[in-house]
Structures
1.
Amino acid sequence: MPAHTRHLATLRRSLSLLRSIRHEQSDPALFYRPLAEDTAMLVEALLRDLTGTTLRGRQVLDVGGGPGYFAAAFRERGARYVPVEPDVGEMAAAGIAVPGSVRGDGAHLPFIDGSFDVVYSSNVAEHVPDPWAMGEDMLRVTAPGGLCVLSYTVWLGPFGGHETGLWEHYVGGGFARDRYARRHGHPPKNSFGTSLFDVSCRAGLHWAASLEQRGLAQVELCFPRYHPAWAWWLVRVPVLREFLVSNLVIVVRKYCRHQRLD
């Protein structure tokens, strides 16, 4: 039973995170700072539950670290934090300097195998054309026995269209993109087909299960990030989960070399 992780997943936390989403475009700091703190708390809770350790002294890789809001939250907990981000503009957007930050592609991470105790990605998978290739490379650089955490926005959830609206993406990604451009006079930051893709809950669960089938990792948890713990059951219900999970968290632990990989 993941006691620490479930204790963190309260209704109050859920409402706080959902309220902050509206600031993502207008005032990014009001969105990303609380999200960064929540992410660090979540990763630490997962470590406590699954490995009996904390973030102190852990090597942590943030795939898609963005403008750097997450660095302080992890370093305050004693982690050795390294962000990797493909977009130079995104890295400099908030004017935050993060020592040791790396420019790189999440699907081709510039690190040797098994370099990090924890490798995580928050709200990035829906922005890359092949999120599972990114997930595979995240697992490659995870140390044996370490945690790989992939959290992403589900397309058919209410926030699947990002800033293009709460309903428009249900008509179609192209429709939502074009409608936004007509209304605002410029394309959205998250443009369907270029920087925003249709990623389902089912596909993530299938990928996670395939890791076990291939003897690469143990699936530890799959749960909706912004939901209280009493609503985690939604992940187990086909179709319903696509609309109500909103953000899926996949947590796997990489097999140690001495483990039997049946």
Note: The first strand starts at residue 59 and ends at 63.
2.
Amino acid sequence: MSETAFVIVQDRPYGAGVVAGRPLAEGEVVADLSECVIAEAPSVYTIDVGGDRHIDGPQVRYLNHSCTPNVYVDTERMDVRALRPIAAGEELAFFYPSTEWDMVAPFDCLCGAAECLGTVAGARAAAPEVLRAYRLNRHVAERIAAAEAVRSA
């Protein structure tokens, strides 16, 4: 992984973000999350890694959301991977409900995609049929399955 794969920028209309510093191949590791710290409490900057643990660090703090993500935050491998080829300068964004069951601060999505969630509030607030279109982390998928089991009981 080259250090230039992951570049923090401050020029987004909604604040900071991350762009690809060079072209990235599908499946390429974009960032290593092993150096992130366990946060004392969830915040708008942390990522849920399961077991009521959230991580924080420059590798995750500025990754923004998209309903058409180009990266996946893998909370088991503790890395960020390209979901498809990504051009240099393209913003790196992941699908927040892939890691978040509940969000500290839900927000109106600005991604503009046809399949946009509208309001991003975590996986619990999204319809299961919508979530099936995305790659989800195990801790989120398990909570969805548990919630569906309760509903069908």
Note: Residues 138-152 form the longest helix (15 residues).
3.
Amino acid sequence: MTRNRGKSRNMPPLGAFDHLKVSPRPLCWWCLERPATTGEHKYKRSDLARMMGDDTLVWFGDRGMRELRGQGALKRDRYGVVKFQKSMCAVCNNTRSQPFDRAYDKFSDYLTSTRVRILPGIDFEEIYGASWQTDTLDLARYYAKHFGCRMVRSGMPVPKSLRTFLDGADDMPDAHMALVTTDSVHRVAGKGLTLSADFVTVNPERTKFRSYVLAAYVGAVGVRYQWWAEGQKPDEPGSQFFHFPMPVLNCFKDEKSLFAGVTRKPSWFARFSQWLSRPAYRSDRLS
């Protein structure tokens, strides 16, 4: 089952900020040079194919429920629920991002075969071996590309730092990415694929965006991205998950907590495991 999460009832809908949205451009949002002729998958096709097998997938979202029958439905995307709109060129969406896709495939395979939610963090050396530093950066860039496509879909300006990160920079000074698990997603989505709402904040005058928060999950475990406009980033936002061999898995009760960055305590087993692994443990916990 795949699920595209609806908007938080406690947050104003994105429609309230329509005057701040930017219109889609004819050029690829990443390179800003070639025509936007392809659409990135919202959910990795390999994930969807694995989940579907010989059966049917069910998609839930703001437009109701859709059934995807057979592998051909993933390619045709008749209902427009599998892919984003065309916003990237073929070079960026395929050739340039192939290392990102390979890193994500290994990560997704690990999440679907390991009881990650009960652990204090994720061991990237176990997933990627000696190349964990390069591969974990590529994993983060896979998610950065995904979030960029979501920003274009929602009319949010794509930060320059995100493009620079995709081009090879090893950090984003105005953004933070963390590994997360959310209880409400676990209860509803189970082993499915889930996209959070696209949360935004604006200044009091509603003349510009102040921050975005987005998340994407495999099962109940995924990556949270937060961007801040100039002057809005907190002094200690936490460190990037992709800089550590075993980053913390930040736990949230629901999407409201995810948006606010308010974590809950991990399970007693996770806390005990973290205590046992203290000498080698590295943290990227949200502040």
Note: Residues 2-280 form one domain.
